[in-house]
Amino acid sequence: MTPTTVLTVAGSDSGGGAGIQADLKVFAALGAYGTSVLTAVTAQNTRGVDAVLPLPPRLVTDQLDSVLSDFAVRAVKTGMLGTPAVAAAIADAAAADRLPQLVVDPVLVATSGHQLGVVEAVERLLPYARVATPNSAEAAALTGAAVTDVAEMTTAARALAAGGPEWVIVTGGDVDAGAEAVDVLHGPDGTTVLRAPRVPTRHTHGTGCSFSAAVTVRLALGDPVPVAVRAAKEYVTRALTGARDWELGAGRGPMDHFGWSA
């Protein structure tokens, strides 16, 4: 059987825990064939980002044209865009209805604190998103309001959905909710709070990329958005659990994408 094809538009993580590398791992782990468009090259590892080189918008567009002209892509996710010019090129493709089931992961700041994107770049794409997946810090940057608890996550999700995306899920891995990891999903069906046990681990590098990649695969396979989001949350919880005792790198390590520790 021919596998379902999905596409990631994102930056490269030389440490392999986030970005294009993480997305392709998730695609493979969940049974999809992954294609990619690179927006930037980074020098990074588990301890942080040392350098970022955005690619020229024309080269990004050429990659996109090559993939879309040859593959029947069923869903697309974006991650790090790098510059407004690159975001504009991707937004043009979305406006032309070339990016089906678009999932926008508004990558603005790496776990290390290094700025990887700008708000203006993300805002160009939000009106075309079927699902947007900001974490609490990204939601705060996009709305201009604090996002520090579940109530503020709910307000942010509703505000962002009013600006274009059909569905918004504000992920709360960095929000203090006690023993739970809480996410807030808002869309045409209303607002839902998703809860799961918090996994005690420092190995959280790439959680946002991996979550949005998992949502993308599930949408490509035909899941409704609420079902896709729940499946993605379960996947990330398993991946965090599997890697909690790993010693890959000296900082925030990657997750167990393939269930090696299951």
TrEMBL record:
GO cellular component: cytosol
Pathway: Cofactor biosynthesis; thiamine diphosphate biosynthesis; 4-amino-2-methyl-5-diphosphomethylpyrimidine from 5-amino-1-(5-phospho-D-ribosyl)imidazole: step 3/3
GO terms under biological process: thiamine biosynthetic process
Gene Ontology molecular function, alphabetical: ATP binding; hydroxymethylpyrimidine kinase activity; phosphomethylpyrimidine kinase activity
Xref: InterPro entries: HMP/HMP-P_kinase_dom (IPR004399), PM/HMP-P_kinase-1 (IPR013749), Ribokinase-like (IPR029056)
UniProtKB keywords: ATP-binding, Kinase, Nucleotide-binding, Thiamine biosynthesis, Transferase
Domain Pyridoxamine kinase/Phosphomethylpyrimidine kinase: 13-256
Reaction catalyzed: 4-amino-2-methyl-5-(phosphooxymethyl)pyrimidine + ATP = 4-amino-2-methyl-5-(diphosphooxymethyl)pyrimidine + ADP; 4-amino-5-hydroxymethyl-2-methylpyrimidine + ATP = 4-amino-2-methyl-5-(phosphooxymethyl)pyrimidine + ADP + H(+)
Keyword Lipid biosynthesis applies: no
PANTHER family for this protein: HYDROXYMETHYLPYRIMIDINE_PHOSPHOMETHYLPYRIMIDINE KINASE THI20-RELATED, PHOSPHOMETHYLPYRIMIDINE KINASE
Function: Catalyzes the phosphorylation of hydroxymethylpyrimidine phosphate (HMP-P) to HMP-PP, and of HMP to HMP-P.
Name of the protein described by the UniProt record: Hydroxymethylpyrimidine/phosphomethylpyrimidine kinase
Lineage of the species this protein comes from: Bacteria, Bacillati, Actinomycetota, Actinomycetes, Micromonosporales
